[in-house]
Amino acid sequence: MRQSCANQAECKAGGHRSATEISVARLANNLLITPHSPLKYLRFAIVIALSAIGTILLSSCGTTGVRPLPAYEPPLVKSNFQTVRTTAYTHTESDHLQFSDHNALGGQLQAAGPPIHRAENTRLPLEIEGDYRVVSYTPAPQPFSMNDEEPKPTVRKATRATTTTTTTTTRTVKVVRGKRVVVKGKPQPPKIGSAAADWSRWPMGTTFRLLSTGQIYRVDDYGWALAGRNTIDLYMATQAEMNAWGAREEPMQILKWGDSEESLRFLERHQDYKHIRRMVLELQGNEEGAAQLR
Q1: What is the signed CA dihedral for 273, 278, 282, 286, rounded to 10 degrees?
Q2: Is 158:177 a contact under the CB 8 Å cutoff?
Q3: How far apart are CA 217 and CA 258, in angstroms?
Q4: I need a labelling partner for 141 at 20 to 30 A (CA). Which of 71, 174, 246, 284 fits?
């Protein structure tokens, strides 16, 4: 959804444009002062056409076009639990091709790990509970007797000293001396996905969890259509996943708020772009100015 050149060296708009215009002007001047011929006229027409095309392409990197910013929305109340409108995007969209699979910080966009349905404590599956029952089971005590000659109950020994079975729940069940012991494996950190948002509302580095899926995202991107909006854009690895997500109102838990000052320092270098200028104004506390910017 991002349509600017802010994180692609600003398209080198200033210096590159002036050098191109100077070259075109010199070439046109040389053609005008030379004897005219049909070939010269054809060359002159080609130069003019290329100049016009170059001007259009270069001006598309700036923010002086007629495309307006999205309608401004008052920010949500800052809270560790919020219900936010979410959309999805991917790096193969037509308006994102110029950025490939990179975020606004220059890093690579990351897809979140698979959903775990609801991010809350639920009852363990029956097959896992069975393992715990076996481990916690203690046989009944044997009757006390002083007669050593009395036959003792036989104890069945395991035929294999140790066997190991790894389950999909990162728990390992070991059989040691006939007893089943559950050993928890080393927990793997969740894969954090990339998200784009208005950095004045969710500063870069803000990390949150979707309560409906348990997936975790971190804000490392922004976009034209997100400036001044209470919308978070979630990165998806494929267009199929993007389309499947659509637009949803999502309850989420903020795990960590990003740094507003750091976000401001980063964005201040790119204020030639209106959507970035709007975020800067809001980060500076000028919500009225951000709302009036079109």
Answers
A1: 110
A2: yes
A3: 12
A4: 174
Nearest to 227 by CA among 280, 149, 174, 285: 280
End-to-end CA distance of the chain: 18
Instruction: Tell me how far apart the alpha carbons of residues 54 and 11 are, in angstroms, rounded to a whole number.
Output: 13
> The tokens 């007797």 sit on which residue?
145
**Domain tally for the chain?**
3
In a domain, 49, yes or no: yes
User: How far, in Å, CA of 4 to CA of 98, rounded?
Assistant: 9
Judge if 235 and 131 occupy the same domain: no
> What are the DSSP calls for 128-163, one per residue?
HHHHHHHHH--PPPPPP-S-TTSPPPP-PPPSSSEE
Given the structure tokens 């035929």, which residue do they identify? 159
Q: pLDDT digits over 212-261, tens only? A: 999 999 999 999 999 999 999 999 999 999 999 999 999 999 999 999 99
Q: Is 94 exposed, middle or buried (0-12, 13-18, 19+ CB in 10 A)?
A: exposed
Burial of 197 from C-beta contacts in 10 A (0-12 / 13-18 / 19+):
buried
Q: Which comes out higher in pLDDT, residue 277 or 168?
A: 277
71 falls within a domain: no
For 80, 102, 133, 155, 173, the CA distances from 96, given in Å and listed in that order, are 31, 9, 53, 69, 47
* Helix (H) or strand (E) run with residue 48 in it: helix 38-59
Residue 178 lies in domain:
123-139+156-188
Nearest in space to 60 (alpha carbons), one of 121, 119, 8: 8
Same domain flag for 108 and 39:
no
Contact 70, 227 (CB under 8 A): yes
Residue partners of 132: CB distance under 8 A and separation at least 6: 124, 182
Cβ within 8 Å of residue 211, ≥6 positions away:
118, 119, 120, 250, 251, 252, 253
